[in-house]
Each structure stands twice: as structure tokens, then as C-alpha cells.
Amino acid sequence: MDSLSALAVGAVAQQVLVMLMWAGAARVGLSRPAALHWAAAAAVQSVMLLLLHWRDELPPWAAYVLLNARGVSASALVRRGVQRFCDVPTTDRDALGVIVGMALANATVLALGLALSWVVFFTSLALAWMLLGTARVMVRRLPFEFGRGIGVALALPTGLTGLVFLVRGALAPALTAVGAPMTAIDHPALLVFAVYSMVMMLLSQFSLGAMTVLRVVRQSRHLSTHDALTGVLNRRGLDDRLDRELERLHRYGQPFALLSLDIDHFKAINDRHGHAVGDDVLMRVAQLLGGGLREVDVLGRSGGEEFMVLMPHTDAAPAAGAAQRLLQRLREHPAGPQGTVVTASIGVASASDRRERRDDLLRRLAGALYAAQQGGRARVVLAPQAAAALRQAGD
Question: Catalytic residue at 305?
Fold first, then answer.
């Protein structure tokens, strides 16, 4: 078995493994739309590589028109998968135009009896267009999800492969003019290019795999700190942010405030209308609360029908004012079933003493919320220390 034959066998085995990998990923729901495209691309690439080994035994139209069209189609499938992964509009019409245009150009070369280097030229340019377009989508979109450095690194193998195809197409006529046609099976440049292509295909598949794994990790981290129903922080996420604010208070003396909000008579909503309606109320209340806060404020669901708001750089008086505005926002935007108004009881506690302890702060906050509920609900109550500080300021 010569070197090119060994490379062909290795490349086919590689693409079959890639196809099985992405088919398995799609089956378990890992980026399913993109994974199905990448599995299909690997299947098309496998067939093309098998036929490529016997290219000299095929009719010219099959060897140089249909075979190359299959290769460019595989690249188009990869690009479409990346577009689906990045949630951007697909460019099917443009891709189809490139594939058809390349096939017509190659058919014209054969019909006119021109040098086969022109087939290499048109095919390489089509592949370069597909690959560079794929890299462009990755560079533009992936940094928003994974950061600029990681996004560029993931796009690099595909972009470099596209550039090499661009250079290969440009040099094909020149190489043919000074030696054996670049389409000859024993051309030295073809062997070098085949080795390079296999390495870059592996790196490109690694990039696609890394994209998928990074998204799973990111989603897992998000789910571990966010409430699945409302999308705001869960208790764990709130605890993490509270610990950070306490550390800033202890080190730099930066004050902050906490609001604890409990939806009034929420159990009656669940009992009368069902848990589906109750869930809808929770989602709408979370949206209303989030829309009434500053960008620096942190909203979370601390449990059941209770929400918590962490307000950095905020003392008792501004926090009490913010709580009143949230109550007014709930009155003005009915979030209950059949357009009824949902009210809430809010407890407020501020932290400005560097000796503040977490448990003491949460105890004061819970006491303020309980006082709001016992005092008739639909009201704001400040924790004792915060209320005392406001009275002293007034005096």
C-alpha cells in the first residue's frame, strides 16, 4: 500500500469515527441540530474519500464534477451546522449557488478540454469560500459565549484550512505550468496537502467538539446558580453574591441592602387555579421585579414564592424607596390570573457595619419580612437597626 492509499484509508476511518461521534451526540441531545449537520458532513466526506481513491477509474464528469461537488457540500453542511450552533441565519442559497457554480465551471473545463489545474482552481476557491465563511461566523459569534480568546482559537483551524485552499487554488495553474499536473496521483504537492488536510480536519473536529463541551459546561454552571422556572438566581447564586458583598463590606466598608419579597396569598392562587397558573405568576413577577431594578442590583428567587434583591452601594433609605417602587410596579402591572393584581410583603435590611455577620443580617431581614406580613401585607418594613438609623437621621 503506497503513502496516498494509507492516507486515504486513515482519512476514511477518521471521518467514520467523526460521523459516529456526532450521531451519538445528537442522540443524547448535545447541540442536536448542529450535531446532525456535522454527522451528515462526515458521512458525505467518507463517501467522497472512498471514491477519490479510485478517481482515475471513474468517468471524468464523475471524478472531477460530482466528486468535488460532494466535497464542497460536506463543507457547506459543516458551515450550516456552525450557523445553527451560533443561532444565526443560514446561508443555504449562497452555498447552493457556490456548489452549482463550481460544478458548472468544472464541467466547462472538461467540455473544452482545458488543463485540469482549472478544476483544482475552481474547487479550491469554493472550499475556501465555505471554510473562511465558517471561520467568520465562529469569530463573530463565539466570543459572546466563550470569550474572545477562546472564540478565535476555536475558529483558527477552520480559517487556516480555508486559507490553504485559497493558496492551493491560486497556485494550481502555476504548478502545472512548471511540472506535473497537480491533479496527478503521484504529485508531491498532493501528498503534502493530503497530510496537512488530515491534520487540519482533526483540529477542526476538535474545535467543534470543544464548542459543544464548553456550551454544556456553561449551561451546567448556569443551571447550578439560576432558577429553572424564572431564570433569576437561585438560593445558591444568591448566597454567592451575598458572600461577595459581605467581603467588600468587611474589606472596604462598602454598604449594601437586602430586600426579601414574599408574594401575598400565593398558596390561594395555587389552590384555586393550579400550579401551572402559579408558575406563570412567579415568572411574571420575576419579570416585573427585574424591570424595576438598577443594572447593578441582583434579583433571585430564594424559595417558593419568595424573592430576594441585593442592592450594592445602597443604604437603608434608598433601599426602602426602591422597595416601595417595586410594590407600586406590581400594582400597576397585574400579574395574577385573569389580570388580577398581585401584592407582596417586603422586608428591608441594610448592612453598613464592617462587623456585620451574615447570619445576623439574614435574621434581621427575615424579621422585617415577618413584620410586613403580620402588619397587613402589601407593605414595606425595615429591619429594626435600619429603622432606628432612619429615625436618628430624621431627628
Answer: yes
